[in-house]
Amino acid sequence: MRANIIILGVLAAFFFLCAAAYTLWHMAAYDGRVEWAGTLGLALTGIMSTFIAFYLVLTRRGQHGEIPADRHDAHIDDGDPDEGHFSPWSWWPISLAAAFALILLAFAGPTFLIPIGGALFIIVMIGWVYEHYRGNFSR
Questions:
Q1: How many C-beta atoms surround the C-beta of residue 124 within 10 A?
Q2: Quick one: angle between helices 92-108 and 113-129, nearest 10?
Q3: What pLDDT sits at residue 88?
Q4: Is 9 left (phi over 0), alpha (psi -120 to 50) or beta?
Q5: How far apart are the C-alpha atoms of 103 and 118, rounded to whole Å?
Q6: How far is CA 68 from CA 5, 46, 59, in A?
Q7: pTM above 0.85, yes or no
Q8: CB contact at 8 A, 55 and 90
Q9: Distance between CA 44 and CA 36 in Å, rounded?
Q10: Crossing angle of helices 2-29 and 36-62, rounded to 10°
């Protein structure tokens, strides 16, 4: 986690520096006018990096020490064994991405696809949530 904090701090400084350089460069090239989209985009990216780094600092402080991923002498078994439950055989995430892609495609053109994509999105979400309650993989 310490490495992540350092990397995010460096990224935040980089984006703030880029925002300042971008603003000054644009002002020099266009008679003192500020181009707000790029300036705010770079500055907000720096702010987001700062927020994530600050959150990691607070999380690290709350854990009272180093986690096994930060120690060079740690083994894989030293970490938390419970990483969650994942379904490598599941096709629902791909179907969910297709339904969401259909909704986004509908925004670009044929708007009649929005309700179709929305209905598919709801059906696929229900299927993904309940995939361990039915069929071969029920518990």
A1: 20
A2: 160
A3: 76
A4: alpha
A5: 7
A6: 16, 29, 14
A7: no
A8: no
A9: 12
A10: 170
Nearest to 18 by CA among 36, 34, 41: 41
| Residue 120 amino acid letter | L
SS3 per-residue string spanning the chain:
CHHHHHHHHHHHHHHHHHHHHHHHHHHHHCCCCCCHHHHHHHHHHHHHHHHHHHHHHHHHHHCCCCCHHHCCCCCHHHCCCCCCCCCCCCCHHHHHHHHHHHHHHHHHCCCCHHHHHHHHHHHHHHHHHCCCCCHHHCC
The pLDDT tens digits for 102-114 are 999 999 989 999 9
CA distances from 80 to 63, 67, 74 (A): 13, 10, 12
- What residue type is 130 in one-letter code? Y
Cβ atoms of residues 67 and 2 within 8 Å: no
Q: What is the rounded CA–CA span in Å between residue 33 and residue 136?
A: 64
